[in-house]
Each structure stands twice: as C-alpha cells, then as structure tokens.
C-alpha cells in the first residue's frame, strides 16, 4: 500500500475514526492479554506453591515417622542420617528435633542444641498437635525470608516431640519474581504488538476511506477527478465503485453544463458584439442625416445645388439605414431558426439567372462584364427559390462592388456530389488568406476593418446563414489581395435529407 | 485674413462634406483628409490648430493618428477631437488614452460643433 507523507488521516474537527478504531481494538486486546496472562501467572505461582507445600508436607510426615521410629529404638542414627540428607538441600536452612518438653535434642543450629527455643514460631510449633506448614518469618540474623515447618512426633498416640525444619524462601521468591517479571514482559510485548497490529489494521481499513475523502476534497476544490483504485473486493470497494460511478456521472454532467455555459457565454458575447456593431453601423448614416437636416434648416443662404446635395445625402443615407435595418432583421430572424423556408424542387439555374439579370445592370453602369455560364446538366435540387436568389444577388453585388470599373465577373453553375455548385468569380481586389473566414462574420469587410466600401457588412453573414439553412456550404477562394476571388455555394440535393450533404473538407483551401 | 485652419479626417464622404460645409460657414479654413496617412501628411504640411479625427479610417486609424500626433514634438500642440460612431465608455477611454483632447459622438449637430470650435480657439488664445 502506498504510504502517504501525512501518515494519519487529516485530523479534522472532532473525532478521528482511525484513532478511535485503533484505541478500541488496542484496548480490547490489552484487556484480553492482561486477563489471560495474569490468570496463567496466578496458576503457575499456585502450582509452584502447591508443589512446595506438598514436598514440605511429605518431608514432615517422613521425618516425624523417622523420628518416632528413632525414639522407639533409641537409635538416633536413622534421624541423623535423614537430617544430614535433608540439610544438604541448599533451600533447607535448618533442621531441629525437639523432645516432648520442647528442648532441642538435635539441631543444625548449634546455638539451640540442648536448649528450648523461646520465639513465637517455636512456641506455636511446639504447642501444635498437627503439622504446621510454612510459617513465614524473617531471620533476625540474615534478614532472609524464612518459612518454618513443623510436625509433632507421635508414638503410640502420645506426642513425644516435634520435628522442624526451616526453608529459606529467597530462591522460591526469586523464582516467583522472575515468573512475574517474565509474564509482565510477555504481556507488555503482547500489548505493544496488539496496539501496533490494531493501528495497522485500522489504517488498512481506513486507508480506502481516506483515499475517497481525498478525492472528494479534490472534487470539491474543482480539481480534475480520477477514479479511486481499490482492490479489496469488500464493502469499501463497493463504496469506491459507487463513488467512481458518481464522480464519472458528475464529471459528465459538469462537462455538459460547462459546455452549455461556454456556448451561452459565447452567444452572449456575440450578441453584445452584435448590438455594439449594430449601434455603430446605425449611427454612421444617422449622423449624416441629422447633420444634413440641420444644415438645411439653419442655413437659409444655401444655393440650389447645395440644397439638392444635402437632400440627396439624406435620401442616400436614409436608404442605407433602411437596408441596414432590413438586413439586421433578416439576420436576427435567421438566428432564430429555420422556420419560414419553403424548399421546393427546381433548377438552381433559374435562381442564378434571375439574380444575374439584376446584377447585370449594376455591372453595366460600372463598365464591368458579367458572364453567366449555366450548366445544362444541373440535377433537380430542393431549395427556397427566393432565398437562393438573395444569396446569388448578394454574391454578385459584392463582386460588382469590390471589382474596379472595367473588371470581369463570371457566375457559373455545375453539378457536384449529387447537388448544385454555384460560383461567382471576379478579378477584383481579392481577399487575403487570413480574411477568408472573417468575411462571413457580421459587419466584417475584407481588408482593414476600418475601410468602408459601402454595403451593410451583413450580406455574406446572411448568405452563410441562408446556405447553412439549406444544409449547404459557402466558402471563398482567392489567390490573394489584388488577385480577384471566387465565392462558392454548394447545395445538397435535398436540404432536409442528410444524404449527399457537402463534405466539410478543406479541399478548396 | 488669417483664417484658423481646421482638418477634418474621416472616410465617410458625407460626414466630411457636412462638417466642412458647416465649418466653412462658421468662417474657418478647412482641409479634408480621407484616411489617417493623408491626415498626418496634411498635419505636417498645413499645421491646423484643430483636427476632427474619425476613429475608424483606412491605412491609419484615428487612435494611431492621435498617437502619432502626440509623439511628434512639432505637432503636439494640435487640438484633437475624436469623432466616431462608437458611444461606449471603453471607446471613449481608448480615444483619450491615444491622445485625443476631446471625444465627440456621432450623430453630431453642426451648429454645436461650430460653437465648440469657437470656444476651443478662445481658450487656446488665452
């Protein structure tokens, strides 16, 4: 598992499940370990004690019998032998044989030989008619912990004396202490291990949750989301899977919303731009009209020529305004949708011919030659006749406007991809490569944006919308500035049937 | 008579014609330019006191023309009036930043233009 730099999961406000989890498991494990170990320790210690008690008890009964036998036979050899045997055990500190009166007849403590000991333990031992196991006391000389064991010596139902021996408890106590120490160490190590294991376990359990939280935090902070990878095949994995599904769904929704938002924003920007442009375009002819009208009304001394001139300005600019408003309304209506188109089957040549007839007059007045080359192999196509006349008129009007006097303009039709191709070629001022897309934008005219050549600047934008409504394509080719240009319109056979739709390739570029 | 020379630079012929007509009636000597480059040439040749500058002109637009005039030590004293169809504050700021002394929005009233020119000339003298 990957270790993170932070180690612990973020200790947020209040509780940490990870810590609680670890502490609970450690606590339970510690209690269990302590119980088990202390139970075992007690049992071991008890066993050790019982073992010793049993040994002491056997020794006492054996000695009391040997002592009785020795007394009966007046033979002290047996008891001496036994005493020698027992005192070779390093744990046995002393051995004593008392007679019925309590006098020490045999003692490994030389000082007590032939005397009657008068300490509390001895008195109790001598008074008792039953074996007394292990009376604890502290040796006044060595300060060692001692245990005194005594038993009466009986002969024929009469108490004739007592045997006693002392056990030095130091070794036994040391053994117990070592046992306690060992068990203590064992429980300490076990509890440490338990804590460690519970922390690791808690970490392993909480790690996926921490990972999920991290991803969620990233999501909240708007960073990009990648899937959480958990391969535990358990509930956590199910949670992670649900989480991944949720984030994927969320991301999808977010992307969609974002895209919609961007589109709306861009539309809004375009609208603002459009309004600003419209305002500008309307102000220019308006200012001529206002100024001309004021000059006419305030200057009484105008010559007839001047008066005519200013009236002419008002007239011309008035028409320009009208055309602008019409075009703007047209464009706005087209922005709204495809309603109002009447697609009928016909020959595109008819529409082009009608537009060419009108454009012919304009070309003639500028001394230009307009050549019309209509193909006889045009397939029948479905289109809105009036709209296509409008497109052809616009293209021809542009050609006339942007071509010098005496220039040449050619309009052609040809079948293409099952549809119709219309082209208008002139040898006029041409279009720079970087402007080829721009000319179709509203109020954009080729060359400097500040150079005005007449026209509303909306003609090509309108053409593009009309052609797009026919599911067709409009584009321009030009060898460059001063080298003339050709505008193409490609219409499919049926605008409402995508079959035969013009391909969106750049083969013309 | 030492007529005050005024330059009108605009690519809209009707605007130029109407401004020129009104200013001439007001007693000023008027020169016309149809683009920015022509205007700059005339500025150097004739040294007009006041220039009406259209923001959108071919070859050199009004903002460029203003900058060119204000960066030329000999022309710096020329009074520049930016005259455009744009009416937004950002356009006004752009014009004034480029060095225009004043900003007029189309449509304009010829009589008001004459009145303003008279005021400017008086303040220039003073």
Structural description of this entry:
Chain A has helices at 17-73, 77-87, 120-127, 170-220, 235-298, 304-336, 348-365, 385-401, 459-469; strands spanning 92-99, 104-107, 132-138, 145-155, 158-168, 344-346, 369-373, 381-383, 408-416, 419-426, 473-478, 485-491. By secondary structure, chain A is α+β, with helices and mostly antiparallel strands. In chain A, a hairpin with a 4-residue loop joins strand 1 (92-99) and strand 2 (104-107). In chain A, helix 1 runs antiparallel to helix 2 (77-87), helix 6 runs parallel beside helix 9 and helix 7 (348-365) packs parallel to helix 8. Chain A is rod-shaped. The two termini of chain A are 56 Å apart. The relative contact order of chain A is 0.06. Residues 1-12, 446-453 and 503-509 of chain A have low confidence and may be disordered. Chain B contains five helices and five strands; from the N terminus they run E-H-E-H-E-H-E-H-E-H. Chain B has helices spanning 13-25, 36-46, 62-70, 89-98, 110-125, and strands at residues 5-9, 29-33, 50-54, 79-84, 102-105. The mean pLDDT of chain B is 84. The chains are: A alpha+beta (509), B alpha/beta (126). The A-B interface holds A 276, 279-281, 283-284, 286-292, 294-295, 298-299, 306, 309-310, 313, 316-317, 447-452 and B 11-12, 14-15, 17-19, 21-22, 25, 55-59, 61, 85-88, 105-111.
Strand order in the largest sheet of chain B: 2-1-3-4-5
Mean pLDDT of chain B: 84
Number of strands of chain A: 12
The whole-number mean of residue pLDDT values of chain A reads 81
The percentage of residues in β strands of chain B lies in 15-25%
Order of helices and strands of chain A: HHEEHEEEHHHEHEEHEEHEE
Shape label of chain A: rod-shaped
Q: Helical content of chain A, roughly?
A: 40-55%
Structural class of the secondary structure composition of chain B?
A: alpha/beta
How would you describe the oligomerization state of the chains in this entry?
heterodimer
Radius of gyration of chain B: 13 Å
The rounded Rg of chain A comes to: 59 Å
* Share of helix of chain B, binned: 40-55%
């Amino acid at each position: 598992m990957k270790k993170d730099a932070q180690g612990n999961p973020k200790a947020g406000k209040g509780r940490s499940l990870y810590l609680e989890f670890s502490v609970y498991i450690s606590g339970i494990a510690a209690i269990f370990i302590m119980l088990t170990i202390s139970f075992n320790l007690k049992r071991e210690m008890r066993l050790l004690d019982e073992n010793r008690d049993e040994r002491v008890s056997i020794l006492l009964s054996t000695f009391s019998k040997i002592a009785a036998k020795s007394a009966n036979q007046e033979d002290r050899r047996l008891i001496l032998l036994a005493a020698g045997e027992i005192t070779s055990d390093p744990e046995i500190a002393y051995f004593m044989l008392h007679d019925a009166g309590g006098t020490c007849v045999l003692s490994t403590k030389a000082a007590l030989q032939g005397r009657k000991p008068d300490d509390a333990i001895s008195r109790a031992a001598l008074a008792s008619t039953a074996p007394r196991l292990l009376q604890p006391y502290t040796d006044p000389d060595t300060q060692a912990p001692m245990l005194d064991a005594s038993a009466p010596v009986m002969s024929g139902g009469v108490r004739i004396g007592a045997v006693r021996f002392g056990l030095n408890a130091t070794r036994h106590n040391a053994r117990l202490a070592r046992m306690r120490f060992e068990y203590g160490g064992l429980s300490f190590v076990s509890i440490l291990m338990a804590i460690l294991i519970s922390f690791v376990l808690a970490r392993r359990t909480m790690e996926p949750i921490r990972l999920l939280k991290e991803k969620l935090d990233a999501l909240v902070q708007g960073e990009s989301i990648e899937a959480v990878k958990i391969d535990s095949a358990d509930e956590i994995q199910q949670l992670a899977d649900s989480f991944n599904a949720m984030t994927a769904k969320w991301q999808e929704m977010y992307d969609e919303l974002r895209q919609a938002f961007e589109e709306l924003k861009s539309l809004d920007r375009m609208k603002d731009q459009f309004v600003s442009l419209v305002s500008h375009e309307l102000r220019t002819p308006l200012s001529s009209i206002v100024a001309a009208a004021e000059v006419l009304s305030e200057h009484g001394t105008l010559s007839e020529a001047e008066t005519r001139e200013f009236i002419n300005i008002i007239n011309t600019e008035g028409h320009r305004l009208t055309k602008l408003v019409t075009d703007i309304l047209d464009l706005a209506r087209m922005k709204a949708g495809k309603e109002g188109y009447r697609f009928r089957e016909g020959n595109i040549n008819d529409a082009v011919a009608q537009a060419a007839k009108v454009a012919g007059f304009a070309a003639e007045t500028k001394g230009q030659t307009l050549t019309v080359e209509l193909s006889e192999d045009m397939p029948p196509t479905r289109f809105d006749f009036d709209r296509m006349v409008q497109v052809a008129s616009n293209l021809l009007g542009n050609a006339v406007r942007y071509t010098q006097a005496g220039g040449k303009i050619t309009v052609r039709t040809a079948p293409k991809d099952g549809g119709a191709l219309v082209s208008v070629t002139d040898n006029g001022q041409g279009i720079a490569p970087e402007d080829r897309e721009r000319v179709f934008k509203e109020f954009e005219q080729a060359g400097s944006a500040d150079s005005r050549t007449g026209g509303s600047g909306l003609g090509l934008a309108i053409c593009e919308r009309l052609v797009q409504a026919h599911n067709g394509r409009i584009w321009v080719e030009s060898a460059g500035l001063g080298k003339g240009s050709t505008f193409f319109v490609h219409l499919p056979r049926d605008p409402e049937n995508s079959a035969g739709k013009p391909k969106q390739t750049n083969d013309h570029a | 008579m030492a007529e005050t020379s005024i330059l009108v630079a605009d690519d809209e012929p009707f605007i130029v014609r109407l401004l020129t007509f009104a200013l001439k009636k007001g007693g000023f000597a008027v020169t016309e330019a149809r683009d920015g480059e022509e205007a700059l040439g005339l500025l150097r040749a004739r040294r007009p006191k006041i220039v009406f500058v259209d923001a959108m002109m071919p070859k050199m637009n009004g903002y460029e023309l203003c900058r060119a005039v204000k960066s030329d030590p000999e022309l710096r004293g020329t009074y520049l009036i930016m005259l455009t169809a744009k009416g937004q504050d950002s356009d006004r700021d752009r014009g004034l930043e480029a060095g225009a002394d004043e900003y007029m929005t189309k449509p304009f009233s010829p009589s008001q233009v004459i009145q303003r020119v008279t005021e400017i000339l008086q303040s220039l003298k003073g």
